[in-house]
Design brief:
Blueprint (H helix, E strand, L loop, with lengths): L1 H19 L3 E3 L2 H25 L1 H6 L4 H16 L3 E3 L2 H23 L2
Antiparallel strand pairs: 1-2
Length: 113
């Protein structure tokens, strides 16, 4: 049940973020659901390997390179999910930051039960 709630919260944050940013386009609620799943799978399987491979540059930048990695993973999700489009790297970077902020607030309120 907790996984389903997290999935729906992520979907709603994707919808809110795409509404706030003009460079992010979302076709439907179904596209948001699929985007949430794809981003979850990418973050689960792909991101840890990329973080390990880029550890030296991540240490040099004090972790800020993780934002760049997140932007590229969002661009990857944009290329995989029909109905979800990000106009470029900078929009993906901003989408990543706004999505993280909204998701942290939403998860804070959903965990307080």
């Amino acid at each position: 049940m907790k996984t389903l709630i997290n999935w729906l919260v992520s979907t709603l944050t994707i919808i809110i973020t795409s509404y706030l940013l003009p460079g992010v386009h979302l076709a439907s609620f179904t596209a948001a659901l699929v985007t949430a799943v794809v981003l979850g799978i990418i973050n689960l399987f792909v991101k840890p390997f990329i973080i390990i491979l880029t550890l030296p540059i991540n240490i040099l930048t004090l972790g800020l390179f993780t934002l760049v990695i997140n932007a590229f993973l969002i661009l990857l999700a944009s290329s995989l999910v029909p109905g979800f489009k990000v106009d470029g790297f900078w929009w993906a970077l901003l989408f990543s930051i706004v999505l993280s902020i909204i998701n942290s607030f939403a998860n804070h309120f959903s965990d307080s039960e």
